[in-house]
Please model this.
Amino acid sequence: MNTTIKEIARKANVSLGTVDRVIHDRGKVAKKTKDKILKILEETGYKPNIYARGLVLNKSYTIAALIPDYNKGDYWELPSLGLNSAAQHLSQYNIKLEYFHFDQNNPDCFKEKSHVLLRSNPDGVIIAPVVNFEASYLCKKLNHLKIPFSFIDSKMEETEYMSFIGQDSFQSGKLAAKLINSLVYEKGKILIISIRNNSEFNKTLQKRIEGFNYFFEELDSAQKLEIEEFSIDQNISNWDKELKEILKSRNASGVYVPSSTVYHVARIIEDSQLKIKLVGNDLIKKNIQYIASGIIDYVIGQRPEQQGYLAFDNFYKYLITGQKVTRDNYLPLDIVTKENLYYYK
Amino acid sequence: MNTTIKEIARKANVSLGTVDRVIHDRGKVAKKTKDKILKILEETGYKPNIYARGLVLNKSYTIAALIPDYNKGDYWELPSLGLNSAAQHLSQYNIKLEYFHFDQNNPDCFKEKSHVLLRSNPDGVIIAPVVNFEASYLCKKLNHLKIPFSFIDSKMEETEYMSFIGQDSFQSGKLAAKLINSLVYEKGKILIISIRNNSEFNKTLQKRIEGFNYFFEELDSAQKLEIEEFSIDQNISNWDKELKEILKSRNASGVYVPSSTVYHVARIIEDSQLKIKLVGNDLIKKNIQYIASGIIDYVIGQRPEQQGYLAFDNFYKYLITGQKVTRDNYLPLDIVTKENLYYYK
DNA sequence: ACATATAATGTGCACGTACACATTGATATA
DNA sequence: TATATCAATGTGTACGTGCACATTATATGT
Model:
């Protein structure tokens, strides 16, 4: 049983109200009395009862999530699942989640949604900063309004974010390289194929490729494999044919796709019965079937659901329980393959 | 703002007490009234206010953990870390953790500690059932006393446990086989070396080995590798020499140690500068250095800290928030290697 | 019809906190 | 001396729930 305000008051020979004023530093207490009460608080290690506190405050918090729009089976569905799950678990604490979806290909859309978001006056904001410049503006605004915000997936160093939840892209690429290397085993050529669905410069992709190349640069030159890099834009017609052409003509032993769109390559490998080892990212539905059948050899997961869950949970911790929040949260790089696929789903 | 019992009562034209009886299924309510109230509860999606609930109950719960004794750096330190972390996070909810450590090699010790545990009259029990027969007796007792209990690490199917948190040992072995297979790549011999620190039959070890063998049985006979099995008892003097002898004489390309004691093999490989690929289990401190240096190629992790955290958290959920608890919780089989080691630590 | 048992329903209190409001005591001013 | 001022302290209420206890309605037996 913890000490209560009542006990403190009895020990100090004052009323509940006086203790209350000291605890909340509301003033109107004689210095002598205040010191006496503070001392007793210290000695007894008083901690407010969170139930009574929660009951009497009974505030309703709203967390806004500024996340890319998605179709079923896309990557961004997964962080949303985690966000939803956390929101549901914590709904009894009167903390709610509100989405503001934007089109990844349209920076204006991000800007517009930012404004709508700000007008809703949330108690916290979760941002997926895929559109850098506009996000920077939003962060400044939030900072000014003293609304705490978190990044998910990737972060913007120069802002005063409360927390970041994501992965280390460079290391992800390095790990992919190691896996490919163990698969093709000293013979053959390797392709890096980026399949982008927007024309923008993408930090995450870039860093993964850097990490991938770094791994091979560090190897003995004897073990080095030939690497070729390709970039395909899904907005261009016939991108599918082009991809097929590359896969068939280059006589590659292994392919690395540094994004969740690796299933496109898997489909072609399956259809054309090519003998190519394949490594990609993310455990999305469209990839799962190819992992199960062994066409995708390895996928590197980044626990997107957990990312979503943590992002929301951090606001609960911060706003409701008043706990400190870890600022940078790097989640493990999960290696997923046929044999351990089941327990990651 | 969520609906309250008061509102439900007003809508149903009854008193608070009647609604309360329906919610807690305490009987003494006319069927007609009960149905009416149930319908309203359903419609409004009533959820009890956790603060008010906690305030009025304000019980102090004690969870007992019956876990093997350990030295620093041993496997069982890790679930304890998770348990402690959960206990600390949830301390404000008046739920405490009390350990009862036993000696793995001494079934009598388990029995004795079981009795001490029962006398402490806990509100929930977490059991690591490494001593099967004695655990069975304890479970029956707990069942009779209506004290809920959970298993961690491995489970006993025939008991009425509240939840289990652990891994799929068979699949763990299968995954290890796949990794070894990709490492030695169609040439050479593979050894399975069990290093036991107690003389007892160990279910987990057995199942991992079964899974390991199963993987190779399923391969085309052309790709099959020669496999030899060894078992070493650490209680026998000179076990270290024997191990060294095996590693040096058998001309193996790969070794699988189906437990956390893989670091013993790693040490010998390092000292004797052998060229043997090595796969084992668990991310304990003694293994980490060998993963970092690449002597252990892969380790399969089972998130022991998370196991501990979940085990405790499940009791919080069950006893305090009244939520339903998932009965079987299989954690992912993490593949840990030099390149992704950092983010698993 | 009446007493009595029992089923059904209602009432009141406690939990610990936050905050609005009320009261007390001391000092200064007319 | 009476009164206004203001600092210091005290009191009361609400939050929503769980449970003990009180009350009312209905059925049963004589």
